[in-house]
Amino acid sequence: MxxxxxxGGLAAGAMxxxxxxxxxxxxxxxxxAVEWSRRLPVRHTADVAVIGGGIAGxxxxxxxxxSGASVVLVERFAVTGGDLTAGGxxxxxxxxxxxxxxxxxxxxxxxxxxxxxxxxxxxxxxAVVLQELLLRRGVKLLLHTRFVDAVVRDGVLTEAVxxxxxxxxxxxxRLFIDCSGDGDVARAAGFAVERGREGDGLPLPMSMMFFVxxxxxxxxxxxxxxxxxxxxxxxxxxxxxxxxxxxxxxxALKVKIPMFHSTDTESLTAAEIRGRRRMLEVLDxxxxxxxxxxxxxxxxxxxxxxxxxxxxxxxxxxxxxxRAGRRFDDAVAMGTFYLDGHKPDDDKRTYILPKDELDVxxxxxxxxxxxxxxxxxxxxxxxxxxxxQLALSSARVSTTCSMMxxxxxxxxxxxxxxxxxxxxxxxALVRKTVEDRGGDLRV
Length: 443
What we know:
Layout: E1 2-7, E2 33-38, E3 42-51, H1 55-66, E4 71-74, H2 101-112, E5 116-117, E6 120-121, H3 123-136, E7 140-142, E8 146-153, E9 156-164, E10 167-178, H4 184-189, E11 193-194, E12 206-214, E13 241-245, E14 250-257, H5 265-288, E15 294-299, E16 310-311, H6 319-323, E17 331-335, E18 363-366, E19 378-380, H7 389-395, H8 398-418, H9 427-436
Parallel strand pairs: 3-4, 3-10, 4-7, 10-19
Antiparallel strand pairs: 1-2, 5-6, 8-9, 9-10, 11-16, 12-14, 12-15, 13-14, 17-18
């Protein structure tokens, strides 16, 4: 389908994949690069392709399907839900009502399972709830499937190169929605993105989630052996750690892991390694120093990511918009959470802003923040929408991401039906549909 140039090569002793593409013209002129090409089958076609199955991606896919579009959702893990499921985040943040019919249906299903207690959720049940919601809506779901590359012709995304157990293949769609959290589609397409804070580019810190169960005094509790890692012996030496209930006789813990980038392979690898080390150091403190009867049950399969990169949109939501509770004529979503911007360069419970400046009134999110400035058929929703870092620190939470996803899905389906580009669509049509489907945009 296309030729790509990759820096580096196979690690020593690695094997080329089965059915690997043929090298082009013998040895490359640049020994630090490899060129390859391969014809890929267009195995999937749709009106709307959603890349990333977190809460934003699920909401986008469901909303687009409800609007009559054919939809394919690509998710790299075995379950949808992103940080809420694979990341082990066991609660919703933000306003729980007025987010729209997709989120309402999620809440109804969780309640029917007895898996919702206030804002606390049973994330394993949530994974099933989201799966079944997508299937009821007729969304074609591709699990264990990674987005690999974007094919762009004359500013239009025509296909996504994806890879699962069937091997590399192409997904062709009329509209794309980047819900990867890290702007994967936009970055592959060469579209403009922003990363981290001004000056040093550091993102909002990550968090590692792990879970413990309470055991009796006579039960074995594995502990950190002597000589392993850096044991914590004083409370003041703990990193920021949040502890909350996780059902009978169990707790969930969240540990702050700063100064890593989710859009860099080596940095993200280092973050996972650091996160699991900190998990054992923190658990050891609670066992030895505070005498907690805790036994490690499991750690989330992935570290929780607050910020990857933000795709540059037709509009950019700024923190001053939040502080002012600003109204937009083209509003399609809204946020209610405080400015949860932890400092990116330490692991303590410190914030970018003074604590008396964290609260914001309800604020609207305009349509232009969900439309990529570059390219002609790309929407985005979730934590890679167009915002500055502090605005993102509020809008990245699950309820707001769901509302953004629903709006992007509605808009993509409208564009598909009308044969127009996102920049040509009247935002009033999106807003009306959002409100008709239970989205409360009043501030």
